Amino acid sequence: MAALIKDILKLHAASQDVVVRGWVRTKRELKNLTFIEVNDGSSLTGIQCTFDHPQADLSTGASVEVHGKLVPSPAKGQAVELAAQSVTVIGKADPESYPLQKKRHSFEFLREIAHLRARTTTFGAVARVRSRLAFAVHEFFHQNGFQYVHTPIITASDAEGAGALFQVTTLNPEEIARSGTAPDYQRDFFGKKSFLTVSGQLEAETYATALSRVYTFGPTFRAENSNTTRHLAEFWMIEPELAFADLNDLMRLTEDFLKFLLNTVLSDCEADLHFFDTHIEKGILASLKAVLDSHFTHIPYTEALIELEKAAADTFEFKPVWGCDLQTEHERFLTEKVAGGPVILSDYPKEIKAFYMKLNPDGKTVRAMDLLVPRLGEIIGGSQREDDLAVLEGRMRELGMNLHEYRWYLDLRRYGSVPHAGFGMGFERLVQYVTGMANIRDVIPYPRAVGQADF
Amino acid sequence: MAALIKDILKLHAASQDVVVRGWVRTKRELKNLTFIEVNDGSSLTGIQCTFDHPQADLSTGASVEVHGKLVPSPAKGQAVELAAQSVTVIGKADPESYPLQKKRHSFEFLREIAHLRARTTTFGAVARVRSRLAFAVHEFFHQNGFQYVHTPIITASDAEGAGALFQVTTLNPEEIARSGTAPDYQRDFFGKKSFLTVSGQLEAETYATALSRVYTFGPTFRAENSNTTRHLAEFWMIEPELAFADLNDLMRLTEDFLKFLLNTVLSDCEADLHFFDTHIEKGILASLKAVLDSHFTHIPYTEALIELEKAAADTFEFKPVWGCDLQTEHERFLTEKVAGGPVILSDYPKEIKAFYMKLNPDGKTVRAMDLLVPRLGEIIGGSQREDDLAVLEGRMRELGMNLHEYRWYLDLRRYGSVPHAGFGMGFERLVQYVTGMANIRDVIPYPRAVGQADF
């Protein structure tokens, strides 16, 4: 494999011969001198190549191979440049039709040409930061003794009733319409009605109670008809699950995890993050560094409510009421005014949380936690799980759940039950948080949402 | 977090106090002494704990917390053991009903209790090797300048017509049956007929032609009604895609990649691999090491056919014929008899390969390659891609494909086209290859196949 531009840029210019392959980003012509910036996507900046003989077809987007000598650059902002000896155009890009010209394009427009947008500065940077964050996720868990578990994508169990589901089928809807008879799911591929998963948590618990520390990192799906900048129908989720652990262990893991991720991108994606700080959201670098330097404040929900109630009557649009979910304005108040940094809220009323969360001795709250960060709000949500069979069955009956459907999940409490805990983090939210990209559709290569499954 | 047993086992026994948390695997009672082996899934072997006071509820599968002193072990095969001071049962496992008793269970039986099988020695080892291999995949690509790209799972494009598809829908089949009118896909979630992906390659190409080196690692799906030990309806696939690269670069990448993976598990999963070598498939360790030490032989398909034709008439059940896919017996002959090691077969007849593979100047063969390894056969398949717009369009027309559907894919050849290449590797095949597990359903936590989507 030829050298990447990011590695060439690290070389000391000593007139050595190098070969650069990439795509032309910009071209300037000055009397007898031509400057092109060649980028291969390996780093934010490309390499400037200069040469003195005119060359046809060297327009933005053309792929080129440049042979030359690496020399110190007289230009600002770059240590080296390439004094080209030969420039070969590999593939042209007709300036009349190539959609990515030098001018800035709206993100809306770029979403329509998602197959080309990674060639832009912004989406190249998003892709690199996303990739580095994903690897950091694996590094963190691997270094800490967690096993990566691939939980199933297609499932016949409805999980936690966590919202609208996509059905997966090989039955032919056209045929069903023609026959006019109800679909026979015994003839469907899996022999029963099947869906795309909304979470790998329950299956991850089965592995945590065998391997002690596990995590999932895979796609999850919500068929919710919400056309917002914060929701996708298909998104990637990270779900660690930890045996022999309680809520305090989980809160420690949460803080260590987020700090590890931020530390990694701050040191490994410096140029890309600087770009986001300058062009996408001013101050984002300082805000990430502040989180890294902070100690996460722990506040039980009930105490948080007291803090919120203390605030002036006109502070909030929605009055904070014990037993209700907090609004974004409440969360912002807690992080920005009360704690001045990240907050882990815990011990929520059981009514607003999932059935599997461990009941506190008060009988009213559960050992849940959400991590709220300034600027974004909730980024991680988790809980200690109910490990007492009788209590869990009681709660499931209260909620009218079918215990037989969950007998495998209940087995974990029947045989060698242990205290355990886990959280979920939407990976795209993390990428948004780190890059400052406002629309979640701009931090995943091919976003899926209502009416949108192109490419 | 408490220490994992794998780390405790590495400590030098100097009578220090340690705490062990895990599940009882075996118990033996000898006069006044009780021995339990406690395993937490962090390593193949657990730790032996000895104590002199009888303790109720200490049966196989029970979860325990043991406090004691780490001391040198008089027993064979372990350096240290725990002289227990206290043993606390956290969660019982009723010996009358707990399905995993000391005796060996058939893999068929364990598939029915897939939620518990990771607690067995075999499936714990499979899970650890799988996890380590997955991380090694990310390490290899990260170290070599590849960006991880999440290609879409749901897609409205039929990809390469690579087999039967699962449809993804929010239309209600019961309602369609009642109404008796054809489904209106404009009212479906994505506004058109949508499916689960069979490959991320085409989308990966869009990122490779922007970032130079990318890879995917995600679930893919085939709705094929094949009830075999080698096929899953849902499986994980790794697909690197490399710009400015030809078939030779790809063959080098293939060899480097597989060797990196084998090297990693051979050094990091020694105990687990030794277990597979002893209990699952004798000789597997030697066979993996032989691949590591080999140089992969490159043979063009046409030359391979000549070798096969040279063999005695009664060597094969199926006569090798130029233009046909090779049978497993042919592949084995090439690896075992001709090359005596891994073989990269290349330059296949275009008729038996996909539309996007680069046509050779002979007009008859394409720049495809398959890596065949002894014992398993094909483990990796890839190709250089057709980067010439006119040739690609011509081939697609020949095959009756809808060019308009693929206009975004063709754009990659229209604007800044570059030579590029990539391969696909089914991750479960790799895990089978490394562990020797005969049935692919035993190397993924929750296998999905015809009639099987439980848990």
Helix-strand layout with pairing:
The structure is a homodimer of 455-residue chains.
Chain A (H helix, E strand, L loop, with lengths): L4 H4 L8 E14 L2 E7 L7 E5 L11 E10 L7 E12 L15 H6 L8 H23 L3 E2 L5 E2 L11 E3 L3 H7 L14 E3 L4 H11 L1 E9 L12 E10 L3 H22 L1 H10 L4 H10 L3 E4 H10 L17 H12 L3 E7 L15 E9 L3 E8 L4 H10 L8 H8 L5 E7 H9 L20
Parallel strand pairs in A: 3-5, 6-10, 12-13
Antiparallel strand pairs in A: 1-2, 1-4, 2-3, 4-5, 7-9, 8-9, 10-11, 11-16, 13-14, 14-15, 15-16
Helix pairs in contact in A: 3-6, 3-7, 3-13, 6-8
Compact summary:
Two copies of one chain form a homodimer. The first copy, chain A, is built from 13 helices and 16 strands.
Please provide a written account of the structure.
2 copies of one chain form a homodimer. Chain A has 455 residues and is of the alpha+beta class. Chain A folds into 2 domains: 5-103, OB fold (Dihydrolipoamide Acetyltransferase, E2P) (Beta Barrel), CATH 2.40.50.140; 118-150 and 245-442, Bira Bifunctional Protein, Domain 2 (BirA Bifunctional Protein, domain 2, 2-Layer Sandwich). Chain A has 13 helices and 16 strands. In chain A, helix 3 packs across helix 6, helix 3 packs across helix 7 and helix 6 crosses helix 8 (284-293). At the A-B interface, strand 1, helix 3, strand 6, strand 7 and strand 8 of A face strand 1, helix 3, strand 6, strand 7 and strand 8 of B.
